[in-house]
Write a structure and sequence with these properties.
single chain, alpha/beta, Cobalt-precorrin-4 Transmethylase, domain 1, Methyltransferase, Cobalt-precorrin-4 Transmethylase, Domain 2, Substrate Binding Domain Of Dnak, Chain:A, Domain 2, 3 domains, 5-stranded parallel sheet
Length: 343
């Protein structure tokens, strides 16, 4: 007997994998998670037509408060928990696996298309440049919104994009409501997210009325969006290939993409460190001119050239890393008595 966690994909039945359907059909009892994501009627009807009375709606209490009972059932019959998206994104389902493992119940995971990976892909932004993801609750308190906003600010400071997952409870939180609240908090806290900031809005990914748009934050309320679920992305400063992708795939105008953010403290720091290291390299006195010392100095110089390239390309993290490598090499030569210089 086995406990299966089965990912159903983005919501429409078309996004279910063949393996997911096989796993559900091989289970005597299938709990359909109705807590962590909204259930589209077409998906419920499709599953009911294939599974009949084996399909049961699972509430939060079924998946959390009664988790032990669910796992104990899986010790006697094959049980599946079917989840919109990927089943391991929500900690609720990881807890089920941990409970199964502790009781010696066999388990299996069938992964599904996650709304998180779909949103990042649909945004036309580099997946490597996303920072901490944040959920915006429908009934968020003022203090909660400030915490969410601080996360946005920290990501922007680090040159990283922010993925905002909007509450799907009830009628769901709309992109315009979420952006309006964050703009209000930003104005109160003096942050860099302002009405003219670029945002990417994604609505109902995977459905026939899917919508993707890039616009200024102040323009989100004017978009004709389908009902939730919605997702909002607040980009950091764009790189050239990201600008090109958004311009061509989302029909964003040059004026929107040409907007430049204020120079961040990280850029100032990168410029200062690069100037400091370059100056030290130019002024240093070579005490031992052996081939090994010359080679290490060449490598340090190459790292500084790399740092200049990264800085000009707005790749601030890479610039700081390259400078730190150069500094480490120079310090090592100084400690070994090969060169003399001061920072």
């Amino acid at each position: 007997m086995v406990l299966r966690l089965v990912g159903l994909g983005l919501g429409p039945p078309d996004y279910m994998t063949f393996k997911a359907m096989k796993a559900l059909e091989a289970s005597e009892v299938v709990y359909l998670d109705s807590y962590t994501s909204p259930l589209p009627g077409e998906l419920v009807e499709f599953l009911r037509s294939r599974l009949g009375e084996r399909l049961r709606h699972a509430t939060r209490a079924d998946l959390e408060d009664k988790a032990v009972s669910l796992v104990e059932m899986a010790a006697g019959v094959n049980v599946a928990v079917a989840v919109i998206g990927d089943p391991l994104v929500a900690t609720t389902h990881i807890t089920l696996l941990a409970e199964a493992a502790s009781r010696g119940v066999e388990f299996e995971v069938v992964y599904g298309v996650s709304s998180i990976s779909a949103a990042i892909g649909a945004s036309c932004l580099s997946s490597y440049r996303f920072g901490r993801t944040t959920t915006v609750p429908r009934e968020a308190s003022g203090e909660s919104l400030k915490t969410i906003y601080r996360n946005v600010e920290e990501n922007l400071e680090a040159g990283l994009h922010t993925l905002l997952l909007l509450d799907v409870a009830g009628d769901g939180l709309s992109a315009s409501e979420a952006v309006e609240r964050l703009l209000a908090v930003g104005a109160e806290m003096g942050g860099r997210f302002k009405p003219d900031s670029l945002v990417v809005v994604l609505a109902r990914l995977g459905y026939g009325d899917e919508l993707r748009a890039a616009c200024r934050a102040s323009q989100v309320k004017s978009l004709h969006l389908p009902p939730p679920p919605h997702t909002v992305i607040i980009p950091a400063q764009l790189r050239s290939y990201e600008k090109e992708a958004i311009a061509k795939l989302m029909k964003a105008g040059e004026e929107l993409l040409a907007a430049k953010e204020a120079v961040s403290s990280r850029r100032v720091r990168a410029e200062r460190y690069l100037a400091k290291a370059s100056g030290a390299l130019a002024r240093l006195k070579v005490v031992s001119g052996d081939a090994e010392t010359r080679r290490v100095l060449e490598i340090a110089s190459s790292y500084l050239e790399d740092a200049r390239f990264f800085l000009n390309s707005q790749m601030l993290d890479d610039a700081l890393i390259a400078v730190s490598y150069a500094e480490g090499l120079l310090d090592s030569l100084r400690i070994l008595g090969k060169v003399e210089f001061s920072w």
